[in-house]
């Protein structure tokens, strides 16, 4: 019976994750009034969320509620860096990254640093799983922001990288 209750809870949290992505898409569309721009930014959310899931698979640890909750949080955190880059008025993407790299690194590194004590000292599985998802998701977000998103942005908008 407890197994069924946990599966239902994970299913509900997965729906919350999908709902957060849809909510972010709607909010970005309402703010920018550009559906393609909003879809482009929102499209990066699954990639940073894949890294925590990959780490769970590699370490052969089961998926827990803290992991799913962390993925919901990462869905909001992961678009911040993409918004930094896409919001810049510079003509070349490399200039946009150079202009925003300090903000991107500071926000990413502080998220990671804040999650490390919870990973190390947490007494329950929920807190450890949550912090681990945030840590690995932030690394994934940083990698996506610096390498994948600029390439997609240049292809979709015709902006030169260099």
Concise overview:
The protein has helices at residues 2-32, 35-42, 46-59, 65-86, 93-121, 125-157. The protein has 162 residues and is mainly alpha-helical.
Draw up the topology in text:
Elements: H1 2-32, H2 35-42, H3 46-59, H4 65-86, H5 93-121, H6 125-157
Helix pairs in contact: 1-2, 1-4, 3-4, 3-6, 4-5, 4-6, 5-6
Proportion of β residues?
A: under 5%
Low-pLDDT parts are: none
Looking at CATH, the homologous superfamily is Multidrug efflux transporter AcrB transmembrane domain
- Going by CATH, the architecture would be Up-down Bundle
**Tally of structural domains:** 1
Q: Given the helix and strand composition, which structural class is it?
A: mainly alpha
Name the average pLDDT.
84
Would you give the CATH topology? Multidrug efflux transporter AcrB transmembrane fold
What portion of residues is helical? over 70%
Q: What is the count of DSSP helices, taking H or I runs of 4+ residues?
A: 6
CATH class: Mainly Alpha
The termini sit apart by 58 Å
Gyration radius from CA atoms, angstroms: 17 Å
Tell me about the biggest sheet? Answer: none
What overall form do the CA principal axes indicate? globular
What is the string of helix and strand elements?
A: HHHHHH
Q: How many strands in all?
A: 0
């Amino acid at each position: 019976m407890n197994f069924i209750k946990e599966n239902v809870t994970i299913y509900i949290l997965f729906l919350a994750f999908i709902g957060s992505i849809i909510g972010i898409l709607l909010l970005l569309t309402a703010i920018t009034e550009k559906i393609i721009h909003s879809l482009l930014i929102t499209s990066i959310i699954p990639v940073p969320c894949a890294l925590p899931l990959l780490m769970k698979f590699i370490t052969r640890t089961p998926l827990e509620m803290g992991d799913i909750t962390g993925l919901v949080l990462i869905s909001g955190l992961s678009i911040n860096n993409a918004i930094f880059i896409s919001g810049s008025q510079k003509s070349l993407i490399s200039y946009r990254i150079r202009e925003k790299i300090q903000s991107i690194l500071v926000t990413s590194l502080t998220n990671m640093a804040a999650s490390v004590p919870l990973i190390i000292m947490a007494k329950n599985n929920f807190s450890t799983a949550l912090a681990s998802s945030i840590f690995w998701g932030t690394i994934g977000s940083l990698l996506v922001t610096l390498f994948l998103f600029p390439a997609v942005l240049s292809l979709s908008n015709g902006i030169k990288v260099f």
